[in-house]
Structures are given as C-alpha cells and as structure tokens.
Amino acid sequence: MRQPGRGTSWLVGILLVVTLAMSAANLLLPADSPFYVSTYTITLMGKYLCFAMLAMAVDIVWGYCGILSLGHGAFFALGGYGMGMYLMRQIGDRGVYGNPNLPDFMVFLNWQELPWYWFGMDQFWFAIFMALLVPGTLAFVFGWLAFRSRVTGVYFSIMTQALTYALMLAFFRNEMGFGGNNGLTDFKDILGFDLQADATRVALLLVTTFLVVVTFLVSRTIVQSRLGRVIVAVRDAEARTRFLGYRTEHYKVWLFVYSALIAAVAGMLYVPQVGIINPGEFSPLNSIEVVVWVAVGGRGTLYGAIVGALLVNYAKTRFTALMPDAWLFALGALFVIVTVYLPRGLAGLFGRVIELVHRRPGRGKEQTTRDDGLSVAEVGA
Prior knowledge:
By secondary structure, the chain is mostly helical. The chain has helices at residues 9-28, 39-62, 72-89, 104-108, 124-148, 153-171, 198-224, 226-236, 238-243, 248-274, 284-297, 303-322, 327-341, 345-358, 376-380; strands at 184-185, 189-190, 193-194, 276-277. Helices cover 66% and strands 2% of the residues. The strands form two sheets. It has a two-stranded antiparallel ribbon with strand order 1-4. It has a two-stranded antiparallel ribbon with strand order 2-3. Strand 2 (189-190) and strand 3 (193-194) form a beta hairpin. The protein is globular.
C-alpha cells in the first residue's frame, strides 16, 4: 500500500465479493427479506461501475501522463450511441409505429429509409466493433494532430472541451439521424434477453464488474511496465525524455487512444442499464465531473479513480434527493476542499496513514515513492 500502483488487488476482491453478494441477494432472496437487494439498487451499482471505468480512463492519461482531458465524455457517449443503435435495431416492429426497419423517431420525422451508417448495427459484434472504432479513430486523429503540434496544458484541455461541445451540438440536430434531443430509448432486449428482467440486470452488473476488474488489472500492468515508466517520464520531464531519444508524441497518442477505448466500453455498458442515451452525455460538464471524481479519489493511482467515482456518485444520488438545486455548489466545494487540503486525494491520505502504521524505525537508505507507484530513481532511469 506504500506504492499505490502495486498491492491493490484487494480492490478486485472487494468488487467481486460485493457484486456477487448483491446479485445473490436479488435473485435468491424474497422481496420481503431484510437482506434483499432491489433491482433498482442493482442497476444503480452497475451505473456507478460504468462511471468508475470512465474515471480510470481519465486517470490513466491525467494521473500518469499529465494530459488533462475535458472531453472524455465524448468517447463515453460515442460508445453509448453505438450500443444504443444496436438496441434500437432489436426493437423491430415492437415500436410505437410498428415499422420493422425504421426506429420510431425516424418514422415520426418522415424518414423513408434507414441511413447507411445504421446498416449492420442489428448485429451485436458489428455494433461493438463500430462503438470502439469510431471513438478510437477520433481519439487517434485528434491526439495525433494535437500532440504532433505539441499542444499541451490548458490549451489541450480547452480543445478537448470544444470537441465534446461540438459533438453535443451536432447530435442535437434531428437530421443527424440519432434521435435529436430525445436520443435513443425504449430498448426492449439485448442478445434476446429482456432488459427489464431481474436476471438480465444482474448479468449486466456482473459483466460490468468483470470488465472493470480487467481494465484495472491491464492498466495497472501497463503503468508498472517499462512503457509506464516512460509515460511517467513524459509527464514529469517531456523535453528531457524527448532529448533521450523517445518519440514522446507516439506514447501520448497511444495512451490517449487506449483511454478513449476504455471510456467507449464504459458507455456501451452504461446504455443498456440506464435505458437511454441522448446528446446530454456529450455535455462538457459531465467530463469536468469525471475530473472531480479522479481528484477526489487520487489521481495517478487507478484504484483512487474507482473509489472517487463510486463515492462522489453515491453522494450525488443522496444529495440530489434531499437538495437537488444545491448539488453543483456542493460538487464545487468538494473540489476546492480536495484541491486545498487533499491534493493527492483520498488515496494519498490513505497511503500516508498506511505508511505511518507500517513505518519501521532504523531503516537504511530511504526510497522516495511517488503517488503513481514509481520511485524517483525509477523515473530518472
């Protein structure tokens, strides 16, 4: 625990135990049991875990490479729209207008035929492929142009914010063919399973948990590898790293695309559980909230991003039920408090407590450890 990038497999165990217990309590216990977990709670937990995956996507580029992206909500929403298009095609003639080929919103808008970019979206594998290809390609093109031009810092953050805002305005237009203001909704089933059934909701939660764990383990392996050390070096001394012969823009583009794909997967998992995807998911405010989750949990730790996303979204659910108009003020105050008093987030606070508990007197040469689990000596190497 003194090196947050390592020794955090306890998080995997906690997630698996909690989700398995919740699933069993939902499917096996009667509704009047005090230990029964409602389907609403199952869905809410699934949504939180999708947000946790999105927070990891931001943390791996911001915490480890110093790239503050305020547009990851765009990749999240694009992945969600890919899944939403598949779910809309599965409705068939069960829609309000009974058209087997056109979604209801297209019939309402007097569309005569299905747009070309909807072809093939009735196949699950093709929809998944496109939901990854589109945000991945967008991240590659945007990142290559930005990093090749050595756009960094606040300028890059503003550009990513402009990107997601432009996409939001585009998807609000009815002629785009994505449902306009209302987006895509009224989903019936996925892979032949009823989306309203308790068993399907539990299965979606378990799949989400599994992919969160896989993403965490893969990302942790990356940041602990030699590649991860180069990425941290780019964050701390990009000019020096470039002078040593590394093509830093290649590392940044690769990491940016990887994080975009994680965000897209989170969006794909989010849509069938929430039941809707609309242009509001592109809102720059959503991307800013993700940064707050990571800051609260502790950037550059991965597990801190997960903890921050879960805690802040749970607080949001509780707080908006009591004082819905005051949530944004509470969120802003939380960010200020964390920035001033907990610059390393909850993970940094927890790490300091563990370090004090495990500190052994009479140690030899001390080694300074960073929040990302790499020593100063390792970064210099």
